[in-house]
Write a structure and sequence with these properties.
Radius of gyration: 40 Å
Number of helices: 29
Helix content: 40-55%
Distance between the termini: 29 Å
Structural class: alpha/beta
Strand order of the largest sheet: 5-7-6-9-8
Strand content: 5-15%
């Protein structure tokens, strides 16, 4: 239960409810006045105003001690020897005014357990230091005098998380005493200088600043501004300005902590590239968390390393003011690559600009986008695709845009990190369809790029970005169709940039070394958080895999049971060929797409019909009938538009309808005059057959008033005129007019018209499904949703038009006495069959069903073979995609179980490593080193035990559930 929510008491069990935060606010409102009264009471001293220690007259109130007790001057000093950074207030007879412990005479003694050094001589003159003095303008000085603006002589500026203090510090003066800066460091102070320090930062404030910078993105300027306000609310600008010192000392502190965390206080060697960085505990790392035994090989698909690559253009960097005067503390030791070697790579690499064979992607088009004020336009790099951990020494700066040469360097460095023996890697990159084409050639041509030839790189594109590519890229690069990688979306890098972007604005103007250290520290913390939460991540993945296997297995079994054995054998063979050929020929993966071609259309039938079915003297009759069919379609389109508009039309809409009617009427007049030529003397153009009757199928969920019956204003309109086609005249009358040979000709043309209409219907239904998947569901704002639904409405209107045309076409065919084959082939079209289904819209979705495909998906489709049909082709693709989904979930379960073991092995390996360091430190008589090693060893041991217990418990519960 959430800590802020409780169940109301006093109610029956059935009426219990959880109290919300607003309930607590309502309960507090009647108490508000009482709380305010007691808050003001705290401003006054107790009536007796006694010191709580010696019961003498109390003059100082400590705001940071529990209960804000009163002290006399002597007790205030003695009680704060070990709490020198508390804020105190002094009673002036009327109220408590701000004071400080220096005014109470507090002195910090270093050495001798906090007591004064017995040596009388002061060998260290700390207060004639080499640090600058604060320069204040006359107008900044206050016209009042108070303790906070009158620091005692010989005091130092000490910055703590509680504020900026001025206190006197006395070092040990014994002959064997250490230098003042080391004495201060031993007592938890980091001096700002080392010869005669006048400013020091407590370890607490440095840790607090680094944590604020990690979690909140707080800059050094904002953090120090907060400390100044905590020190003096009225005159914060008079508080000593140590902002620059904070930035510099924080860099030193960050470097020390990083070296300490990675064990370099226990080693005599210096760190090499990437050694000051954590990596993923769940990715396979031979020699660390993977121990291959027996006949097992690292060539197995289970040991595939998955990478995701991306660029971030928010991490800009301005040109440094003094690049010649920069000091590098960890150049290339963390996640950012070493500057010297990397700078030489783009200087020598050929900048190839090739025309994209896919869509015009932003990352491709911006490769040469340079900004003169920026040294770096952004950063790019590599992370593990399954768990989202940055890969050490694989982050690079962009000199211009996101060029291939930059990402080549990042990928080659990532492929060198703990991958000895691994021969297979999958890379996900937004533009991998272009990037991967000549990757090996670029590596071979550069002396700064190294990648073993034994490593097979399989390209992929994230499931979000792949929909911005051409349709063919989906089956060729989407993770759903890559063997051996489980369930990966390939988009996890986008979530990692979000945390990094917290510090990007502050890092924009830093020096190059300082920026690199900040980015390294942020990425290392991101990996650390991923590491300590890996147990929860893998448990969630395990549960998802259990459900995924069940659901995808049921969906595949339904399709598999209905498919003939010989077809399944053929489909499996085609799948294996596609997977084995994907690296050399990505087009082989088109096996997962529907290979369709529309049937014979009206125009083809018309050409053939005028040559075969009509007499030589009347060859233009096929063209005449085709014209009639086109007029009929125009009538239906206009009629739908009129009915949709209804009585609520505007003047502009009515004018547009009138123009269309005039144009249509002219076509009808010309067609009717031509009928005298083709139908013979027995035809009378003045005959008055029944009005045109069209069944309009419309799937829109609009108000029924929008589709009201045609108003009186549209009566006797051309869209309701029946044109003299043979099907309207009837078979008997055609025979009477000696035009009997026109009946089979119109029937052939009607079949072509039905084929055209059904083909267009299928296209628009698929288009509607794609819009739902890529536009409606992905819309993140109301504006995008409105635009997406407008597109859906437009496509739905096209569906309604073609459905109505088919209904009219089939009705006319029935008048021409069709044969049994034609009746079986062209069935009635029902409204519910126009509803888009998951099977059509998203063939890779879980729980798909083949039976949702309506009859018209298998009508008149040429698949290149006499024994195949549209339905079989659809079934094949759905069977392959359902199998791919089931296989990915099975792989996911296998990988998650392996990753559980690898994670435990990684923690155990770390625990053993720190345990060995503890023993070595004890042998060298370094107790502090040994204690820290023991603490680190225990941390990793606890992580290993916690993860192992959780994984075993989860798997045992799953086994019991499966047995039931």
């Amino acid at each position: 239960m959430h800590p802020g929510a409780k169940i109301s008491q006093g109610k029956s069990k059935g009426q219990q409810r959880i109290q919300s935060q607003n309930d607590y606010l309502r309960q507090w409102l009647p108490r508000q006045e009482s709380y305010l009264h007691h808050l003001l009471d705290r401003e006054a001293p107790p009536e007796d105003r006694r010191c709580i220690v010696c019961e003498q007259d109390g003059v100082y109130k400590c705001q940071d001690c529990l209960g804000e007790p009163l002290y006399c001057t002597g007790c205030c000093r003695s009680q704060h020897h070990h709490n020198p950074f508390h804020w105190i207030s002094q009673w002036n007879g009327q109220f408590f005014e701000q004071s400080c412990l220096a005014q109470a005479g507090l002195v910090i003694h270093l050495g001798h357990d906090g007591k004064q050094c017995p040596a009388l001589a002061d060998r260290w003159d700390l207060f004639k230091g080499d640090e600058h003095e604060d320069q204040l303008e006359p107008e900044d000085l206050p016209f009042v005098s108070g303790p906070e603006f009158q620091p005692k002589e010989n005091t130092m500026v000490i910055i703590d998380k509680s504020g900026v203090h001025r206190l006197e510090i006395r070092c040990c003066d014994c002959p064997n005493a250490l230098s003042p800066d080391i004495q201060m460091f031993q007592h938890g102070f980091f001096p700002a200088s080392f010869n005669r320090p006048k400013t020091a930062f407590t370890f607490r404030v440095l840790d607090d600043f680094l944590l604020d910078n990690l979690e909140c993105g707080t800059s050094a300027m904002n953090y120090y501004s907060k400390l100044r306000r905590m020190t003096s609310s009225m005159f914060p600008h008079l508080v000593p300005d140590r902002y620059r010192e904070l930035m510099r000392v924080a860099r030193q502190w960050r470097q020390l902590k990083t070296m300490k965390w990675h064990g370099f206080g226990h080693r005599s060697d210096i760190p090499s590239t990437g050694e000051l960085a954590l990596f993923c505990p769940a990715c396979p790392q031979p020699g660390i968390n993977v121990l291959v035994a027996g006949d097992e090989s690292l060539d197995d698909w289970k040991y595939t390393r998955s990478f995701v690559m991306d660029g971030n253009f928010k991490a800009e960097h301005l040109h440094p003011i003094k690049p010649f005067d920069e000091v590098w503390l960890s150049n290339g030791l963390g996640f950012m690559v070493g500057k010297d070697r990397y700078k030489m790579h783009p200087a020598e690499a050929a900048d190839m600009v090739e025309k994209s064979s896919c869509n015009n992607h932003w990352a491709v088009n911006q490769v040469n986008a340079a900004r003169h004020k920026l040294e770096s336009t952004g950063i790019g790099g590599v992370a593990c695709a399954r768990h989202g951990c940055f890969v050490p020494h694989s982050m690079v700066d962009f000199q211009k845009g996101e060029r291939q040469m930059n990402m080549d360097y990042a990928l080659c460095e990532a492929a060198r990190h703990n991958m000895e023996g691994i021969s297979r890697a999958v890379t996900f990159y937004d533009i991998n369809c272009q990037y991967n084409k000549h990757f090996r050639a670029r590596v071979d041509a550069s002396r700064f790029l190294e990648m073993t030839q034994d490593l097979t790189i399989i390209p992929g594109i994230g499931l979000w970005h792949v929909h911005g590519h051409q349709d063919s890229c989906y089956v060729r690069y989407a993770s759903n169709f890559i063997d051996g990688i489980g369930r990966i979306d390939g988009e996890i890098m986008e979530t990692l940039w979000a945390r990094l972007n917290l510090i990007s604005p502050a890092a924009r103007g830093m020096s190059s070394p300082h920026r690199q250290e900040c980015l390294d520290y942020q990425m290392n913390d991101s990996n650390f958080c991923k590491m300590i939460r890996m147990k929860r991540t893998l448990c969630r993945k395990y549960k998802l895999a259990m459900n995924g296997i069940t659901e995808s297995g049921k969906a595949f079994d339904r399709l598999d049971e209905a498919a003939p054995t010989h077809l399944k054998t053929e489909w499996s063979a085609r799948e294996r060929r596609a997977q084995s050929s994907r690296l050399n020929d990505p087009e082989a993966m088109d096996e997962y797409e529907i290979n369709i071609k529309k049937g014979e259309s009206t125009s083809i039938v018309s050409i053939d019909g005028s040559a075969r079915n009509a007499a030589p003297s009347r060859r233009s009759v096929a063209t005449w009938i085709s014209t009639g069919l086109a007029i009929e379609e125009a009538q239906i389109a206009l009629l739908i538009e009129v009915r949709r508009m209804g009585k609520r039309s505007t003047e502009t809409q009515r004018l547009d309808i009138a123009r269309q009617q005039d144009r249509l009427q002219g076509q009808i007049d010309g067609f009717t005059q031509s009928a005298l030529t083709h139908l013979g003397e027995g035809f009378d153009a003045d005959d008055n057959p029944d009005d045109l009757n069209v069944d309009i199928l419309d799937d829109l969920d609009d108000d029924l008033a929008d589709f009201s019956k045609t108003s009186d204003a549209w009566t006797n309109s051309p869209e309701l005129t029946v044109i003299p086609l043979p099907s309207n005249l009837g078979v008997d009358r055609c025979r009477h007019c000696m035009a009997e040979d026109l009946i089979p000709l119109e029937m052939s043309l009607r079949e072509g018209q039905a084929n055209d209409t059904l083909h267009n219907l299928r296209i628009h239904l698929c288009n509607k499904a794609v819009l739902f998947r890529t536009a409606v569901r992905q819309a993140k704002s109301q504006a995008l949703k409105t635009r997406a639904w407008s597109q859906v409405t437009s496509v739905q209107q096209a569906v309604s038009l073609h459905a109505s045309i088919y209904t009219k076409t089939r009705k006319q065919m029935m008048k021409l006495e069709p044969g049994q084959d034609q009746l079986q082939k062209f069935k009635p079209l029902l409204r519910e069959q126009l509803k888009i289904s998951t099977a059509v819209g998203d063939p890779n979705a879980r729980g798909q069903r083949n039976e949702s495909l309506a009859w018209f998906w298998s009508v008149e489709v040429d698949l290149g073979g006499p024994d195949q049909s549209w339905n079989e082709e659809f079934y094949r693709v759905h069977w392959l995609r359902a199998k791919a989904l089931r296989d990915r979930w099975k792989e996911e379960m296998t990988l998650v179980q392996l990753e559980m073991g690898w994670t435990c092995h990684y923690f155990s390996w770390r625990a053993t490593q720190w345990g060995d360091r503890m023993r070595e430190s004890l042998e060298k008589r370094l107790p502090g080193h040994a204690c820290y090693s023991g603490r680190q060893s225990q941390m990793y041991s606890l992580l290993a035990q916690d993860a192992q217990a959780a994984f075993q418990d989860l798997q045992s519960v799953s086994i019991e559930t499966g047995d039931e």
